[in-house]
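Data card: per-record layout.
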Amino acid sequence: MLPAEFSADLIGQWVGQHIWPLFRLASFLMVIPVFGTQLVPARVRLGLALLMTILIVPMIPPVPQVEALSADAVVITLQQILIGIGLGFALTALWQLFVIAGQMIAMQMGLGFASMVDPANGVNVPVLAQIYTITITLLFLVMNGHLVAFEVFIESFYTLPIGLEGLGQDGVWALAHRISWMFASAMLLALPAVTAVLIVNISFGVMTRAAPQMNIFALGFPIGLIFGLFAIWVLHANFLPHFDQYTRETFDFMRALQGQP
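The structure for this 261-residue chain is written out next.
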């Protein structure tokens, strides 16, 4: 028999107070771009999740008292994993937005064949997309975006307290529609460079049609590539405002996903 001050219910409450926040934190850290990539070992992510759990447990609301092996405990665990993955997916969409934009520009200007292995994801991506990924990662860390991301995530323990209710159907649909926002924003980001390269290609097509005996397309490819690089250089002047806007929209979406106004 356990002493009165250490009853089975009390021990279950303590375990639930730490285990369920750990599931939400670990799911979040396994998905987010900077810490959830292959560059960070799983042991480091797990250790960081354990450390953050110990720090935030005294600040979060009390967890519901349920039996450890009951159906309610399983549902609560799955809800915590879904919340962590959902909030992490919102940040992942921000990174993939710039990767897709880089792929669109590279394919139009002829850099699509110049690909390299992305060490973070383990797949081949165009060099331009990798440059964009490195740029936004450095900007995100320099602007303390990771601290803001963790702050927004910790707010979820108050707006979405640990319980049987999680993101709900509206939250899942919002995450699904976030994919369309990612592609639309990438298209808007890449549209100036894509349009500029398209105008150059159209002009070479008109010249080839007007003078068929001249092999214009032999010169069109390198000139189009040079003009595309020039367009990218010009667009980099407004890269920071676009990144700031999309980052703010991402954090606003993460708060809206939690039910905050």
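Known properties of this structure: The chain is about 75% helix and 0% strand. Residues 4-257 form one domain.

See the next section for split statistics.
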